[in-house]
Design brief:
Layout: E1 6-8, H1 18-21, H2 23-26, H3 29-37, E2 41-43, E3 59-62, E4 70-71, E5 79-83, E6 87-92, E7 105-106, H4 109-112, E8 136-142, H5 145-156, E9 161-169, E10 176-180, E11 184-185, E12 193-194, E13 204-212, E14 216-223, H6 230-237, E15 261-269, E16 276-280, H7 285-296
Parallel strand pairs: 4-7, 8-15
Antiparallel strand pairs: 1-3, 2-3, 5-6, 6-8, 9-14, 9-15, 10-13, 11-12, 13-14, 15-16
Length: 300
C-alpha cells in the first residue's frame, strides 16, 4: 500500500501546472520538476508530466525527499483552550501543519488528534478551517460528524468570529478599515496568492490599529472570508506587509523566524448547545520578544 502523503486539489489551484502547484511544498519549481521526473509524484494513482494541469478533486501523492526535516509532535504537546464531547479549540504552535500535504514529513494536527475527531475528508478528520504552518493560535476541530457539519456551515455563513494579531511594517492611514479585494493565484508568480489574479475569489479582511510603533504597527485583524494567505496578501496589498513573512512581507524583521501572525480569538455558537463560546490566546514567546524589539527599534 502506498504510504506517500496525499493531498486533494482545491478550487483555487485548478488548472495550475503540476510543477508550479508543488513548488512551494518542495522548495522550488525545479525541485518539483525533479521529483515529478523521478517518478516520486503520482496523480490519481499514476505518473503524469510536469506540464499536467491539476483539476478539482485530483489526489496527488508524493514521496517526500529524505532531506526534508521531520517535525515530531504529540497530543501532550498541544495546548487545549476549550474541550467538550463535540469539539476542541486547540492553541496551535507555529511550525505544526494542520493536515497532510505534499512535502511535509512528520505528524500533523489532524494526525495527532486522530481517533478523537470526526467529519471531513480522509486525512483531515475534524478540520473545519485552516491556519498556515507558521501561524500560531486558535483553531476549531470537530469531535463528531454532526458538530463538523454544523461548524463547517457556520464558517461558510461567516458566523464564526476569527481575530488575529499582526505586526506590520509601516503605519495604516486610518485607525480601522476594510480590505475588500478578491484573491487568487498571482498572474505572474503562480506559486503565490495575489489580488492580481485571473481567477479571483471574494476576500474581505477588516483591521483595527492597536499600537503605533517606530517603524511598524500592531493590528487586530478580523477575517470575513478565509482564502489562502488572505491576511498576508491583503495587508501587503495596502502597503503594510506582515513582519517576518518571507513570502509577502519583510523576512527576519525584529529577529522573527516566521510571520508575526497569531490567531488570538475565536467566538462562535456551540454547534450542539447553542452556548456562546469565546476563547482567547496570548501571544507566544517569540512574538512577545519581536514586539518588544519593535517597540524599541527600527527595522534592520
Amino acid at each position: 500500500m502506498d504510504q506517500r502523503p496525499k493531498i486533494e486539489v482545491e478550487a483555487e489551484s485548478v488548472d495550475l501546472r503540476l510543477d508550479i502547484y508543488l513548488a512551494e511544498a518542495l522548495g522550488s519549481r525545479s525541485a518539483a520538476q525533479r521529483a515529478i521526473e523521478a517518478g516520486s509524484v503520482l496523480v490519481n494513482g499514476g505518473p503524469v508530466a510536469k506540464r499536467y494541469r491539476v483539476q478539482l478533486g485530483d489526489v496527488i501523492a508524493i514521496e517526500v525527499p529524505a532531506d526534508i526535516p521531520i517535525v515530531q509532535s504529540s497530543r501532550s504537546d498541544l495546548s487545549v483552550a476549550y474541550e467538550d464531547e463535540s469539539l476542541f479549540v486547540i492553541n496551535k504552535p507555529a511550525g505544526l501543519v494542520v493536515h497532510p500535504a505534499p512535502g511535509h514529513r512528520g505528524e500533523t494536527l489532524a494526525e495527532i488528534l486522530d481517533g478523537s475527531t470526526a467529519g471531513g475528508e480522509p486525512g483531515r478528520s475534524g478540520i473545519v478551517h485552516r491556519l498556515d504552518r507558521d501561524t500560531s493560535g486558535l483553531i476549531i476541530v470537530a469531535r463528531s460528524e454532526e458538530s463538523h457539519r454544523l461548524l463547517s456551515s457556520a464558517i461558510q455563513s461567516r458566523d464564526v468570529e476569527r481575530e488575529y494579531s499582526a505586526l506590520v511594517i509601516g503605519h495604516p492611514e486610518t485607525d480601522q478599515g476594510t480590505i475588500d479585494a478578491p484573491i487568487g493565484r498571482d498572474i505572474r508568480v503562480r506559486t503565490k496568492m495575489s489580488i492580481a489574479t485571473d481567477k479571483p475569489r471574494e476576500a474581505v479582511t477588516h483591521f483595527r490599529l492597536v499600537e503605533v510603533l517606530p517603524d511598524s504597527a500592531l493590528l487586530t485583524v478580523k477575517l470575513e472570508t478565509g482564502r489562502t494567505h488572505q491576511i498576508r496578501v491583503h495587508l501587503a496589498a495596502i502597503g503594510l506587509p506582515v513582519a517576518g513573512d518571507p513570502t509577502y512581507g519583510v523576512e527576519s524583521a525584529f529577529g522573527l523566524k516566521r510571520q508575526f501572525l497569531h490567531a488570538q480569538r475565536l467566538a462562535f455558537d456551540h454547534p450542539i448547545t447553542g452556548e456562546r463560546i469565546d476563547v482567547s490566546s496570548d501571544l507566544p514567546d517569540d512574538l512577545v520578544l519581536a514586539l518588544t524589539l519593535a517597540r524599541a527599534s527600527q527595522v534592520e
